[in-house]
Specification:
Elements (H helix, E strand, L loop, with lengths): L2 H8 L17 H44 L5 H14 L6 H16 L3 H7 L2 H38 L18 H7 L9 H9 L34 H10 L12 H5 L8 H9 L8 E2 L2 E2 H13 L4 H19 L9 H5 L2 H19 L1
Antiparallel strand pairs: 1-2
Amino acid sequence: MSASEADHRNESYPLTLPDISGVVPTSAEARAKRRIAVLEDELENMKQERRGKQRKTTFYVSQGRAIRRMGVLYTNLEDLIAENDRRYEEGSEGATPEHNRLQRGYIIVAQVLPWLHERLGQLEVDDCQDMLKQLKRGADAARGDDTSTLKDLVATWINEHFHPPSLLKSDDKHARGFVHDVCGKLLCPSEWNWDDNRVKAGIRDRTSDYIVSENSWPLFLYENYAVKLDNLEQGLFKSKILVQAFKAARPVTTKPSQGQNLRGLHNQHEESHSSLPGVRFALSNISSWHTVDADFDYEVFWSNVVDFFENVPGPVTQQRVNHLLEWWTRKIFGKNHCEDLTPEVVSQMSVTALAEQRKALEDAAFDSD
């Protein structure tokens, strides 16, 4: 390029405004490039926003799986939040047992999901509703997974333990329930004798004299599947199938602190709903989960279980409940004697003894030299 051409290119010209609008002429190519750049920026922002929403959705769904497992089995999150708001504004005076239950549920969920309470106060209404929707989605998905798991495992345990003439199939629930002799016995209310043909026929025919409801403790809850009618508390919640279900459905990771109730013990594991309703559902012939099965209401049944542990008439009963919880802790986690390992006890153990022996040998070799 010659010097004259360079000077010509570097020479500036005044803008000529063709009309009163003040529009300065530009090339079509330049305008198109700028529009493309703007659209690309908008597209990238939309992608980032979408990725952010997907990450949030994945997080909420995964966190929601813990709600039924470690928090509340049936109550909606909206009801728990509403009760906490009501109690903050109006106080706890005049609270009914149902109000108290809801508040306990909110506290448990807030402990299981420690970020939730703060986020409820930060999010806009639409974002908050979307979050609760995704949490529920995760909770429902976990329940479906856990129901399927227990359906298969309970069939295997029944076949191995009872050796029924008609073996249960893991993929078929229609042959379970009261039509199956072993399942029927385990589902039978503890106050009746399943071996009595009148009882068996009455339950199967669903007569008014033999109504199976949540107001009875099923036999599968009892140790050795046997009950003493003059002491209905003895052996309750100690059955082998409950322990098996609990261990199978919940990976054991952390030992609960002393004094936690059964719901607190559940908080230490991952499982959609309590092993108690889960086992009953697996024993039944209902193919899909429903809160109400004929005359049996699972939600009320779980409330009865919680009341057994939390609403005790006095200290004597509370002591029996504490013993039962200690029994469960030993069954799930084993006995922990760390507090008994005093320095005196440790000094008598082989690690300390070996260290002392090695030191003695070293001293003896030094003295001989």
